[in-house]
C-alpha cells in the first residue's frame, strides 16, 4: 500500500512510520524539517517538505497515495491546526483522491452513538470545559470529516504514555469506552496502520487503549 503520512517526526508518528515501513508499505511523509526524520528511515521514504495546512504541499503528498494517515499531535501555537488540516485534506481528497483517511482524535470528544461510562462522560465534560481552544479543535475536526463523503476513521485514544508495544491485542470499540485509561505511543502508531490496512471503522471514531 502507498501511504501518505502526516506527523511522521512526532512521538506517535515515528512509531507509525516504522510500522508502515516494517510491513512493506511505500511511504511518503510530509515534514517541516527533514532533519528530524530518524536516520534509519530517511532513505526509505519520499519526503515532501511543508506544512500540514498548505494545499500545495498536501497535493504533492497525496500524489499516487492509496491512503492518508495523520499522526499530528496537539499544537499549542496553532490551536485550530487539526480542523484547518482536515478542511484542506477533504477538499483535495474529494476531487483527486485518495479517499481513505485515518487520524488521531481524542477520547474526550463525543460522537453520536457513544456508550461512555458515567465516569468517562464526566471526564469528557471537564476536558471540553477546561481544555481551551486546542481541545475545541478536535470536535471541530470531527465535524469536517463527518460532513464529507470520504472513507475516514478518527482514532480516540486515552492518555498517551511512552512504553513498549503490547504483546496482547489492544482494546478497541467504535462507541464503548475502554477499560484501560492509557495507551502507549508505540501501540497507537501501530493501530493507525492496522486501521488503514484492514479497513477498520469506516466513518467512525473508535476508542482504543493498551490493555491493562
Automatic annotation (TrEMBL):
Protein name: NAD(P)H-binding protein
Pfam family, one: NAD_binding_10
Chain positions covered by the region annotation Disordered: 162-181
GO molecular function, a single term: riboflavin reductase (NADPH) activity
Annotated InterPro entries: NAD(P)-bd_dom, NAD(P)-bd_dom_sf, Polyketide_Oxido-like
PANTHER family the record matches: FLAVIN REDUCTASE (NADPH)
Domain called NAD(P)-binding: residue spans: 7-197
Native source species: Cellulomonas fimi
Highest taxon in the source lineage: Bacteria
Amino acid at each position: 500500500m502507498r501511504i501518505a503520512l502526516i506527523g511522521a517526526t512526532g512521538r506517535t508518528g515515528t512509531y507509525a512510520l516504522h510500522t508502515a515501513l516494517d510491513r512493506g508499505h511505500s511511504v511518503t511523509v510530509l515534514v517541516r524539517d527533514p532533519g528530524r526524520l530518524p536516520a534509519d528511515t530517511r532513505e526509505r521514504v519520499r519526503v515532501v517538505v511543508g506544512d500540514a495546512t498548505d494545499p500545495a504541499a498536501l497535493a504533492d503528498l497525496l500524489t499516487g497515495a492509496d491512503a492518508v494517515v495523520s499522526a499530528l499531535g496537539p499544537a499549542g501555537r496553532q490551536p485550530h491546526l487539526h480542523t484547518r488540516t482536515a478542511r484542506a485534506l477533504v477538499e483535495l481528497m474529494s476531487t483527486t483522491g485518495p479517499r481513505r483517511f485515518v487520524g488521531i482524535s481524542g477520547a474526550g470528544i463525543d460522537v453520536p452513538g457513544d456508550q461512555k461510562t458515567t465516569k468517562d462522560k464526566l471526564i469528557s465534560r471537564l476536558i471540553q470545559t477546561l481544555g481551551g481552544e486546542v481541545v475545541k479543535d478536535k470536535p471541530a475536526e470531527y465535524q469536517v470529516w463527518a460532513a464529507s463523503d470520504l472513507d475516514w476513521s478518527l482514532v480516540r485514544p486515552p492518555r498517551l504514555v511512552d512504553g513498549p508495544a503490547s504483546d496482547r491485542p489492544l482494546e478497541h470499540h467504535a462507541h464503548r469506552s475502554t477499560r484501560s485509561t492509557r495507551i502507549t505511543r508505540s501501540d497507537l502508531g501501530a493501530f493507525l496502520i492496522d486501521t488503514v490496512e484492514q479497513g477498520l471503522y469506516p466513518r467512525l471514531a473508535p476508542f482504543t487503549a493498551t490493555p491493562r
